[in-house]
Amino acid sequence: MAINQEVLDEMLLPYPDKVQKNRTKHIVRKNPEEGCQQIEANTRTVPGIISQRGCCYAGCKGVVVGPIKDMITITHGPVGCAYYSWGTRRNKARADDITPPEQIYGAMCFVTDMQEPDIVFGGEKKLAKMIDEVVEMFHPRAVNVCATCPIGLIGDDLGAVTKKATEKHGIPVLAYNCEGYKGVSQSAGHHIANNILMENVIGSGDAEKNPSEFVVNLLGEYNIGGDSWEIERILHDIGYRVQGVITGDSSVEEMKNMHIANLNLVMCHRSINYIAEMMEEKYGIPWLKINFIGVEAIKKSLRDIAQVTGDETFIRKTEEVIAREEARVLPVIEHYRKICTGKTAFAFVGGSRSHHYQYLLKDLGMEVVVAGYEFAHRDDYEGRSVIPTIKTDADSKNIPELDIKPDPELYKEAHEHLNLTKEKFDEICSRVPLGNYEGMYPDMNGGTLMIDDCNHYEAEQLVKELKPDLFFAGVRDKYIAQKMGVPAKQLHSYDYSGPYAGFNGAMNFARDVANAMTTPAWKFIIPPWEKESENKGDINA
Amino acid sequence: MLECVPEGPVEHTIGKINPAKTCQPIGAMYAALGIHGCLPHSHGSQGCCAYHRMHLTRHFRDQVLASSSSFTEGASVFGGAVNLKTSIKNIFAIYNPEIIAVHTTCLSETIGDDLPTIIKQSEIPEGKRVIHTNTPSYSGSHITGFSNMVKSMVSYLAQATEPVKKDQVNILPGFVNPGDMREIRRIVDEMGIQMIMLPDTTGVLDAPQTNKYALFPEGGTTVDEIVDTGNSRLTLALGSWASDAAGAMLVEKCNVPCIPLRTPIGLKATDDFIMTLKEKCEVDVPKSLTVERGQVVDTLIDTHFHYQGKKVAIFGDPDIVIPLTEFVLTMGMIPKYVLTGTPGSRFETEVGKMFEEYQVEGSIAKADGDLFELHQWIKEEPVDLLMGTTYGKYIARAEDTPLVRVGFPILDRAVHPLMPITGYRGCLRLIEMVSNTLLDRRDRDAGDEDYEMVL
Ligand code: SF4
Ligand code: SF4
Fold first, then answer.
1. Domain Nitrogenase/oxidoreductase component spans what residues (chain A) (predicted)?
2. In sequence order, what DSSP letters do the residues of A154-190 get, joined into one string?
3. Contacts of B4 in chain A (CB under 8 A)
């Protein structure tokens, strides 16, 4: 099912002129004859529009640094921002050999709770004192301090406070100037978080590489509902060692030594591509975009990784694990596929998920007819080849780009990291998309829509027009869709289910999606007395 | 879980660890959703609005629509006037609400945007309204934000247009669930009294599934009704933190007398509510309510041994926590720790008085507290039961103490926003929750020889 251009144009008509002009550029109806069509992304939200976007703080604290389990994250600001980002992303974490239970702070929420006098006279002293108290009470390995909107305005010098605290307590105390108004969405916060972690954490450990191991990092995987545990299970079964995950169930201890990896695996491209690139510049470690959502996608990702190792054992083991897992999960998925086949869906999620989940839906025989990101950049839609053509505007200029130089001791060429000859490496590169991401665009069908920063009005109109069978979005949109009679699932929190990644995840997802559509209540919406009765009026019939 | 929390007394003097309150705008947004055809608008960067909508949605499991001025760095430096004017224009063009209720955020407060002036300069279509309230989160809490918005509704809209007051009562229900608002309305209806509830989120946040989508659901107090609150003969302000300010404004602006009352949670507060209505409106209490009340007393007598003498920690919003404390005292329980995150020493005085009245010794009442503190006290001296929001669940697990979920927010349980804790039916529900939670615990802990069919 597809939408035609006239309907689309008509949909935008009620907008005031300026809004119409703006929004038109954010909506692309795929026309396969036109080559890769350009979409506008990562630009300002229209004021007054009911957007799905959040803020820079949410991207930094909420997404990237909040889940680091052995760090205490203090939100510097009034109480709200901290409160709403407390436990809400379901980033699961557990104790292990490296991180004992008393060093896991995920259930806690720390905030300076700025009061009026602090806003007037500045909150630096308060922050410094809170860091002192918290360090004395909890003895964390490291502390994050995240700024909220008013902090930037009153000019508290987070850097100075945290620098002093670092010296005083002998642990890293890191400052993130991720005030909510920076950039145009969460995206700015991801970037800021990436920068600080790269500058202060990654590479600060002194672990040595064990040459007999093939070590990978999992970047941009947040362990929502246990996703990263399922991915790690599969990678371990094949024989890889996972040094660390950023930032699902991750610890500073593990992140410090991420530089010993042979290869970086990038799950969520949007939130983490910066670290992947910076590690490539600094250490020469190559990265590979992967996707562990959906059986076909997992198979491709696993095979790509095995290819990159150039190692026959990994290649063989990969096929064994795939065969074993498929034998187990495919029959289950097939059961649900019967229910799902031929159905259509909308997918509106933050960064990469709106793309990733298309594979899983394809496995179930479903088609995504409208897909959009909340806070993506053009490359997430059109692929990385457009990066050089993206103009930076005032809103993104404020986010510092780190000037990364090759590490004088640790930098090695990519093929050396992979223990390959240059020739072999080049040959593999021709087959495997190392260091590349093609974006969502190639996977959309002709006539389907890509919408950047889709807002409530557009979503509502499109649901009316296309009547999808399922609506994937965050919690704010879920109930809107359901009130329109369309089953909806939260793809940020998975409706408290999961994991959805990996082979087990594909099974869980298939079950949850099928259940969402078939739950008996959908049949009961119209009360019997409002239904047309065939023999109405004749009580004897 | 929570192995990181230190044993023994610790020095915690700055900021909040595991806060028991949140910020003002979410309360303002909730209140604004209780006006029919209203789009709440957050004047600041869009993150706040996203967070507030997300949190309300999680609690109510229903749609929460609100727009934002979407500040970026430029607006933060040069002021948000342009963003607000553009927003107002776009909102009326795209969503066509009856009224926009603007609230500020920390950001727009810190830069000092002058909202009344900006609103005056905005293009507002004929017959439509824009109201605003100030909700800087560096003071107060979500409750203050709620209170500010309700007060603004009155100050913008309420008018004494009739020469003689009408035979109707204003009920300010405070920051409670739609289920509670429905229950309060039912009681007033049973007594045959005309009323205007302000705000009224029934039909908005507990909207039925009808297969007919509406951007603005049927519920909510209409603008005309809000105007008409100025013509009522009386206001009952339920819960002083959330409702007093609006009540006082109705006195000042429209000369409608106001009686402040506790939120009708528990036997005594419900009695007070009904007695006030009876006396002020000169009506008889119908048999049906007398029966309901009798059922509560009967149940209290039948169940007292499930909970009497048990120690309980209560935390949450002051207007909920105070009458709830009173009710558990009525039940013969001991409120050991009573804590709210909302600042204001009045809270401690009021709860302290109840401790005295019921001769409870060694209990603590604290305003502007946090859950880390509460946890420290519980570690020092445990309780049998926790009553409060979802955020108590970590303490519940760490200390193996059961939790009865009441108040805002409850993010991890379903159906609660539709089920009242107010009125006599609310009493029954509270007794049921407390009793059954303690009985479940007893079953769980029982050895085989003590595991019984009849409890
Ligand atoms: S910036 Fe202020 S208003 Fe916004 S979420 Fe944070 S505390 Fe609340
Ligand atoms: S998948 Fe989306 S929501 Fe998740 S971290 Fe990436 S950008 Fe954010």
1. 55-517
2. HT--HHHHHHHHHHHHSS-EEEE---TTSSSSHHHHH
3. 101-105, 108, 138
